[in-house]
Amino acid sequence: MQLEFKPDFDQVRQRWDSLWKGVNTRPLALMVLPKAGVKAAEPPRYMAWFDGPFEPVIDQLLAWAQTHEFLGESIPFFCLHFGADTMAGYLGGDLKLADDEGNSGSWAVPFIEDLDRTEIRFRKDGYWWKRTVEFGQALRQRCDGKLLIAGPPLAANLDVLAAMRGSQNLLMDLVMCPDAVKRALDAICRAHTEIIQALAELLDWDSLGSMNNEGAYVSGRQSRPQCDFSCMISEEMFREFAIPCLQSEGNDADAFVYHLDGPGAIRHVPALCELDALDLVCYVPGQPGQPGRERETNLGENIDELGKGQMCLFHPNREKITFGWKPDDILRARQAFKSRKLVFQADVSSKAQAEDLLGELDRL
Known about the structure:
single chain, six-stranded mixed β-sheet, two-stranded parallel sheet
């Protein structure tokens, strides 16, 4: 298979396949740089497609991809979504664009008043799924053979239930009516399976493979499981309510990359790493000064000791969040970690520096 903006896609696809099998010879490195000698185009403005026309977004997407190089195991792609709560829209909720200057995305309008009186199911006739299909078809018509289309990050389990019910109400439900919560979660898991199937058909994942929104590729199907709600519950509740859902979500996919967001979620790492299907943990650090940041110390080593791989996008800098790892830090981590499943976002400034890093990783 050929991609216009990734000429070595076939070789890169094989390296990703080796990573999931745990037989790769070096960590994978993600690096995207502007092409030399051309004016680099910006990617589409975040959420510009939420309620506007698709064609200008696709124009901007193609201009960005055409003016950048995708080095190492980076693959050009676009994530088709309508915000972090996209799945709530697929289950009957409405999504609203955040009214702020920071363009922080969208949020779901809670609509479940009684867990036992609301039918939770995938609504193919709903507005947000129909808009997903319309956008997906428009993207594929112009982007097939050039770049890949990632499906939305399906924040399922307790996250989507909190989006539909309201976090405070759900916290009360966990104590007052846990069985009703479990019944709702079972329905969410069934819907997740149906949505993955529908996305696979829409985006031809079984032939083209799939990306997640953090840049991981698999020759098959994936989403990007998470449970940000876990920051508000105990380890015991996480094991009781979230872990069965995450196991189900892992069974729906051919690769399992978990989005671990913030210091408050770190206490659940031991339970997460007991999931056989889990391949990689992708940690997003807390903001400087945020309570609990001390828990980040040795997190990478702890995940490694628990036998799981890592997707390292943000460097664990104590002073500020840094997107990308410097080459020397990547080389040190490569020697320190035992796992063969390692992916690093590399902070490089030139193609020559990128090639030097890949050469060093090959030599280790």
